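**Fold in C-alpha cells:**
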Amino acid sequence: MDSWVILSPIEQRIKSKIEAVGTPLKEWDISIYRGILTGYNEAFIIDGKKKAELRAEDPKSDEIIRPILRGRDIKRYGYEFADLYLITTFPSLKIDIDMYPAVKQHLLGFGYDRLKQTGEPGARKKTNNKWFETQDCINYRDDFYRQKIVWGNLNLTAAFSFAPEGMFINAPCPLIVPASSYLLAILNSKLADYYIRNLGVTRNGGYFEYKPMFIEKLPVPFPNYEIRKKVDKLLQAKEYDEIDKLIYTLYNLTEEEIKFIEIHFRFQG
C-alpha cells in the first residue's frame, strides 16, 4: 500500500499540484524495459581480461560481446564502468553457437547441466531457450543501441543516468527509451523522488525499490522548447540545485511546499 493514503493538508496540496500539471509517464511516448536476465551471470558476464582472451582465441567473439552496467555502477547523472561485458546470446538472435567456438568453450566450462534451461535441480529455470542462450528473449535488444536512461533497482535516493549507445544493462535495472535530458533531470529531482517514494514502502536502512510500476506513475509536464534549453544548459554546467529549483516552478509549488520537500530530504539523509 502506498503512502498517499493518509495525507496532511500540505501533502495533499503538493500531490494535487504534481498531478494537475503532469501527465503520467506511462502515457508518454516512451518504453520502460527491464535489463538483461541471463539466469546465470557468472557465465554470461565476463571481465575485460576474459574478453581479451576470447578475442585472442577467436576474433569473431567480439561480435556477441558487449559492455554492461550493473545497478551498483549507476550513479546520479553518471556511472562507473567496471570493465564488465555481456555475452549476448539472446534467443531472439537465433545464434549458431558453433560459429563462436571460443565463447562456446567458455560457456561449457560452467557445465551443460548448469546452463540448460529445463528447470531441473541445478539448472536454470525452464524455458524454450537453448543451453547457451540468455534466459530472456530480449526482443527489445535494439534499444540497447540507443541512448537510454537507466537506474539501479534499489537505492537510498533517486540515481538516474544516461547510458550510451551500445551499453547494456543487467537486470533488475530498468531503462527508458528514448532518453532526454529533460526527463533525466525530472527523474533525478527531489520533487519526483518525493512523489515516487510515496507510491511504495521504504525498506530498513532507507532503501527504496524504484520499480517501473512506480516510475511510470510519475506525472511529468510536457516541456516547451525554452524549458528544454534551460535544462540542457543547467545539466551541462552540473547545476543540479538550480535544476531542482526550476522543476519546483514547473509544478507551481509555493515556498512553503518547497521547504516541506527539502526538509523531508534532509531528514531522510
Remarks:
- Residues 9-30+180-268 form one domain.
- The chain has a mean pLDDT of 94.
- Residues 233 and 239 are 9 Å apart (CA to CA).
